Structure formats: C-alpha cells, structure tokens
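Issue 218. Parser rejects a valid record. Input:
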Amino acid sequence: MRAMLSETPGGPESLKLVEMPSKPLGKGQVRVATRAAGVNFPDTLIIQDKYQFKPQRPFAPGHEIAGDITEVGEGVSGYKVGDRVIGMIGHGGYASEAVVDEIQLLPMPKNMSYEDGAAFTMTYGTSYYALKQRSSYKPGETLLVTGASGGVGLTAVELGALMGLKVIAAVGSDEKMEVCRKYGATMFVNYAKEKMRDKVKELTGGAGADIIYDAVGGDAFDESIRCIAWYGRLLVVGFAAGRIPSLPANLALLKSCDVRGVFYGAWRGREPAEARKNFDEMLAWYGEGKLKPHISMRFPLEKAADAMNALLSRKATGKVIIEVA
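Output the parser choked on:
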C-alpha cells in the first residue's frame, strides 16, 4: 500500500510518500480500498502534535475516507466485500487502503460519489451535532456562521437553512458570499470591509444573533460575543484563526447568554447511537437531494501537502479532497 506518512512532528511538507506492507485485519475490522479522502483542519494539527489525540508514529493523517471493502475480518456482520462505504477513522486516510473498525463505517447511498462520501463525515457530522444537539435551536431564529465558506462553516450554513434558521454568513470576500448564498444564507457580513458586530446588529434590528457557530476563534470570537442576542448561544467549534480566545465573563452576564463547547469527536465516541442516528438523517437528506458537499479543490495522494496548504491558506471553499484511486 502507499501512504503519506508523518514520521516526525511538522507541517504539511513533513509528510513522506512511502510504500509499506498492508496492516493485518483484527476482529471486527474490514479492509477498505480508499478511493477518496477528505482534508480537514484537524489533519493539519495532528501532524504537528497539536490535536487532542496523538497517534503513535509513523502514521498517515486523514480522518475520513470513502472506498470499497476488499476484505472482511472475523465477527463483521453488517458489511461484505464489495460494499461502498465511508470510514470515520481518526487518522490513516491519506493512504491507498485503510483498516477500519465496523463501528466506524457508514454505507454510502447509491447516488453518492466517492468524493462526496469522503467530504461528508467530519464537516456535516460536526455541524449537525452543533446545531441539533448543542444549540437548542428553534425554527425562525437567526444563526450567524463565522468562516462560513469553509469546510465546517458551509455545512453549518446549509444545515441551518434546512432546519429553518435565518442564516447570516460571515466571510472575507464577496466571492465567498456567493458560495454561501447558494447554500442557503440570506444575510451576509464581509469582515474584510465591515465590523462584524455592527453589521450583525444592523441585520437583526439591534437584537443580535440567537445562535453563533464559531469555528474561527480569535477576533471572530471576540466580535461574536459582542453581537449575540439575549439568551443567545455561542457554539465554540474550533480555532482556525490560531488564537484561542478568552471570554470576559461580564459579557456573558450582560446578555444572559450561553457559551457551549462542540467537541464532536468525543461526543461521537460517548454517544455512538445518537451519532449514527444523525448520519442516518443526513444521508437520507443527501439521497433526497437536500444536501450536497461543495468540493472546490482536488489533489492526488502525492500532493497531500498541497491539499493541506490550500486549506490553511483559505484559498479553498467548502471541502478539499484527495483522490487516491
């Protein structure tokens, strides 16, 4: 098998393409011939030892894959050789094959491409958990999404609109506004040109946003807590800006608002049945044409470093995909 391995902590350029033996199958596992892998911000952290989980080296990054089952281990009952599947694997996706626990698999809808399958689990899983389980949303409320044209941001826009929320997309360019418009946003902030807190208050008649989905952190978080509505909920999803912000407690007091953490990976491990129910609902929506991943860039396996850098530079909108086979 071929794999882009992280042998020492470092940035995308530290990855090395190697040929290596296939891993043996354990009980309850399957072997998947990877056709496509999703690129996510946590992939850039895990190779620097900056993520919550630190795999033993050498390892290939890559949280999500789509492909075909080529071998089934002892005790596997729900899948067979030839099945098209999505794998939620934590790491190991930047490789031509992966060994996956049965519990980490999802069946792909018949009308789903491998690229869409590889673009689905991390971003949609995170955003649906944030909005469904963590936001206490009510249809008709206003949802502000920071970094709205990015991987998780655009799925929050799309799901929020589908769930009956009025979506404000905060982005850094007019071009990114148009991407968000296609996915259901009806109001916009270009924070390259205008102050987010002022624009959000203008758009909401001074009330502020009921729900704020923040995967950016840094200055975006600072602005968010200042344009949140009374009884609002600020969802802490990530820190793509690099700076982990601090919260002045008096601002939470003044708005009687909540700041809620969204640690999707840990929740999925603690509540696998609920996580699977979320995916069953979203995959049904995909099958009905109500959800569609936006894939803006594609790279071959040997260009995985370029794929990561495209994500880090914010040149991409929606998802970046590695085409493996």
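Fixed in the parser; the record now loads. Residues 197 and 280 are 36 Å apart (CA to CA).
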